[in-house]
Design brief:
By secondary structure, the chain is α/β, with parallel strands linked by helices. Helix content is 38%, strand content 27%. The protein has a single domain, classed as 3-Layer(aba) Sandwich (Rossmann fold). It has a six-stranded mixed sheet, sandwiched between helices. The longest helix is centred in the C-terminal third of the chain and has 18 residues. The two termini are 32 Å apart.
């Protein structure tokens, strides 16, 4: 369904990720692990079209993805960036509605669905997004990404700066939407426990390249490999 094929990318002439390939099947949850600075965020920006590929390509349903991030979104690519980047001077409701409407969906219906999915947002519905806590902003960013009705959700460091209780909530939400809506998920993370709680299959990055592709149980049981690749 979604693939990155032999892709190299970076900033200007500086190469950050080199010759990376990965796939996410329909309805699959895949983790992208690696220490800070190995290129996970760069790869996610490449996946969404925010960074161009120097070499290689991104494919959706076996076809080259359009260059425009907006067109990729309309083809079903939802994205929650590192740092969340909610619209701080818009309310919670406005954040969700504008995302839905920008992608041809009904804003009011998207808000109603988000409030049903994320009860934590109901009491904050009229509040400015910039005044929410970090965890609440992360939930809002997830609700906003779901408002475009994605087929695959790309999450970049969703646990960063989020308290443990909210991390547990996010894990439960992701498992539920994957199970109920069959939305595929690619999650880039440093938090091994979080990744292992939701992902069936894992890629591990090191120095801008994919060092390992494995399944959850194999990686969970290999403490030496965890230490070598992640320092945990």
């Amino acid at each position: 369904m979604f693939s990155i094929v032999n892709a190299t990318s970076g900033y200007g002439k500086t190469v950050i990720v080199r010759d990376v390939s990965l796939t996410v099947g329909a309805g699959e949850v895949v983790g992208l692990l690696g220490r800070n600075g190995v290129g996970k965020s760069t790869l996610m920006r490449l996946a969404t079209g925010l960074l161009p590929a120097m070499h290689g390509r991104v494919e959706i349903d076996g076809k080259p993805a359009p260059a425009s991030p907006a067109r990729r979104a309309r083809l079903g690519i939802g994205y929650v960036p590192q740092g969340r980047f909610v619209f701080p001077r818009m309310t919670v409701v406005e954040n969700i509605a504008v995302a839905a409407e920008a992608n041809g969906h009904n804003g009011r219906a998207a808000v109603a669905e988000a409030m049903e999915d994320f009860p934590i947002l109901r009491q904050k519905a009229g509040d400015l997004a910039g005044g929410l806590s970090g965890g609440q902003q992360q939930i809002l960013a997830l609700a906003r990404a779901l408002a475009i009705k994605p087929r695959i959700l790309l999450l970049d460091e969703p646990t960063e700066g989020v308290q443990p209780s909210i991390i547990d909530d996010i894990s439960g939400i992701l498992k539920r939407i994957n199970r109920e809506r069959k939305i595929a998920i690619l999650v880039a993370e440093q938090d091994l426990d979080f990744c292992l709680s939701i992902a069936e299959r894992l890629y591990v990055m090191e120095k801008g390249a994919i060092r390992l592709e494995t399944d959850r149980e194999s990686f969970r049981s290999d403490r030496q490999l965890q230490q070598e690749l992640l320092g945990v």
